[in-house]
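Quick one: sequence plus NAI SMILES, need structure tokens.
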Amino acid sequence: MFKIQTLNNISVFGLERLPRERYEVATEIQNPDAVLVRSADMHKIEINPSIKAIGRAGAGTNNIPVAKMSQRGVPVFNAPGANANAVKELVLSGMLLAARNIPQALDFVKKLDGDDHAMHKAVEDGKKKFVGFELPRRSLGVIGLGAIGVKVANAAVELGMDVHGFDPAMTVNNAWQLDSRVKQALSVDDLVSKSQFISVHVPLLDATRGLINADRLKLMKKQGVILNFARAEIVDEAAVVEALNAGTLHAYACDFPSNALKGNPRVIATPHLGASTGEAEDNCAVMVADQIRDFLEVGNVRNSVNFPEAVLALAPGATRLCIVNANVPNMVGQITTALAKNNLNISDLLNKSRGDIAYTLVDVDAAIPESVAQEIAAIQGVLAVRVIPAK
Ligand SMILES: NC(=O)C1=CN([C@@H]2O[C@H](COP(=O)(O)OP(=O)(O)OC[C@H]3O[C@@H](n4cnc5c(N)ncnc54)[C@H](O)[C@@H]3O)[C@@H](O)[C@H]2O)C=CC1
Ligand SMILES: O=C(O)C(=O)COP(=O)(O)O
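Reply:
Sure thing.
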């Protein structure tokens, strides 16, 4: 029986992927094998040594101590692209809300009173305060052309916008998806200076903290709109508030309300709703639950943010050793020597590495005694060892 702890609400469609006869799933559970999480801050909680995997039912993993988990030999999985359409749609709403001054207009309407005749007159007199602008031919700069950025850039092209993108580490797959009408910016500054709208779609890292700052806001075109549906810290909030108050920035649409932003009429803030659609919640939960199950039951690694991709079909009757080790020379040599010494025959083997971590799957055509697993665990550089008994 595997024990799964959920730290946030996870869609039942995902939880149903973990059969009840083999999985116990609860918010409070002793010695869990794995954790399913959305935005709960795992930096602030004790992570039980029993945990073998963490599944983030979403994209961003800045709420998880990933480096610490790597040192422990624990993979962190996420659900790349599973909520990208939901975020794209909210970004498009942000652009339209900002361009047509809709939040201010809705507020004006809420405050109307008097009879219908008086209201109608106030509407016709008042509407001139909310004159907006249209999107075709307006420029949009997209920083980060991953699952979300590509979708935002493509949709904006379809709306007739002039779109530039910047991403120095774009994947080939995302490049294939990107509309050929999206122009490549040479740097963030180049992109900012060409853009009236800027949308950030990068993970929160040291390199992306404060990416949009006071200097860059000064480079933007007039009536600028910043869209931040990535993470609060990627935009320097104080600089944005200053630009909004000075009237040099038209609007700040973001998914991260704060006291500094509260009450500012030019701020359009949603309560971290980017991934909050039924579709996105189901997609993320299903994807990550399948990945956790494949890891716990077979040792396979798909869509991990700290482990290499490692998928090896497990032959019926084979016992599998899953070994996480430092990516240094002679690890596979030592592992296979330990097996040979104990007269264990290897039927299949996969060794993959990513950065400092290597992951080795070894299939053996006999049972693996606990003493052999311990011998391998004792090899210097081995971080975690797991035996998956033959089915
Ligand atoms: N508001 C919400 O509810 C949601 C927010 N997010 C946020 O959006 C972020 C992006 O999500 P996805 O597009 O799914 O991730 P992704 O991993 O598919 O794309 C991120 C892209 O950013 C690029 N990048 C990294 N550093 C960069 C830099 N310094 N300059 C330019 N590009 C850089 C990467 O090369 C990658 O292509 C997540 O990390 C998360 O923080 C994601 C989903 C929902
Ligand atoms: O997927 C992401 O990165 C998100 O920010 C979504 O967060 P959530 O799952 O809605 O708490």
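The mean pLDDT is 97. Residues 278-298 form the longest helix (21 residues).
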